[in-house]
Amino acid sequence: MMPTAGPATLSIDIGGTHIKGSVLGPDARMLADRVEVDTPRLADPGNVLGAIASIASELPSYDRVSAGFPGVIRRGHVLTAPNLGTKAWRGFDLAAALSRRLRAPARVLNDAAVQGLGVVEGHGLECVLTLGTGVGCALYRSRRLVLPMEFGQHRARGRRTYDQYLGNAALQARGKKTWNKRLGKTIEVLATLVNYDVLYLGGGNARKVELALPDTIKIVSNTAGITGGVRLWDLDMEEHFSTTDTP
């Protein structure tokens, strides 16, 4: 099948454990197999940019770049990076750095928000919960991004955040049975807090969900963290990349 005419997007999913990427056509279809590398142990901006450049070198040509980042992003700048090291990243203009390194215009958004853009269908108020190294969350109405939320940094029990309560380290330490019980309790919290119409469970650990889920909760592919990158360039996303005020 020939690629659909239109701009090609290099889409990168930056995670606490792996960094993944592919080049997408305008219909979000991957034009090449996904390339994946381990996230550098010292995950500072220089090393992460080097890993992204190595991914790009193995992929076809592209016209623009999209990236999902595990932290708070404001107009391309990093405010927090809880699973990479906030101190090294705080205030870093990741969008500008990607644009320089990869020689193409670049947009960056929270990784959970990007994953949600790849799966939401427009069924009222939709929520995405990503389960990986940490926990991500974002809200959408009528397929439009309303709010990326730092749910992973919210207190779950005692002094533990949801990253600590439900992240990959908790899964490995406590096992799938306990982790699934915790996930069930977390879903109850989100249902009360958000009153969503549909909840999507994504991220690398979504495949380990063993709960009986209602029709309003769907497990989605982790590839959405890449395919959602096309939508960063939609007109209805312009407000998230405005440079009217500084970060």
What's the short version?
The protein has 247 residues and is an alpha/beta fold. Helices cover 28% and strands 26% of the residues.
Strand content: 25-35%
- The helical percent reads 25-40%
Largest sheet: number of strands, sense, barrel closure? 5 strands, mixed
Q: List low-pLDDT spans.
A: none
Give the CATH architecture of the largest domain.
2-Layer Sandwich
- The sequence of SSEs as H and E is EEEHEEEHHEHEEEEEHHEEH
Number of helices: 7
Fourth CATH level, the homologous superfamily of the largest domain: ATPase, nucleotide binding domain
Under CATH, the topology of the largest domain can be stated as: Nucleotidyltransferase, domain 5
Mean pLDDT: 94
Strand neighbour order, sheet with most strands: 3-2-1-4-7
User: Which CATH class of the largest domain?
Assistant: Alpha Beta
* CA-based gyration radius: 17 Å
